[in-house]
Amino acid sequence: MEKWTQDQYEQTLARKKQEAHDAMQLYILVNAKDLQDECEPGVKNLSAACKAMLNQMLEGDGFEVEPKVRSRIAGKLTVRYYVDNLDPSRRTYAEVNQ
Fold first, then answer.
1. How far from each other are the two terminal CA atoms of the chain, in whole angstroms?
2. 57 to each of 1, 3, 25, 41, 79, how far by Cα in Å?
3. Would the pLDDT of 71 be above 60?
4. CB of 64 within 8 A of CB of 79?
5. pTM reported for the whole predicted model
């Protein structure tokens, strides 16, 4: 069984965000370890999950838990994604915080 790609994780996050938006939620919290366990139970692929989470952040999204050291604590990464405005023209978190 092949590990998920970063793109597969990004697609899953985009779907989760859209579902929350459709349910009229303001935001969702996503934890890297929980996301990996949901998508790939028993597989170690935190790098792809974390990169996808960071790449899916838009202006206004924020960190609930932002590990300062990579590696073993990467699973603690938790992001608050605001889903009230999913307009594709929104700037990414990286663009805003360069």
1. 37
2. 28, 22, 17, 24, 8
3. no
4. yes
5. 0.90
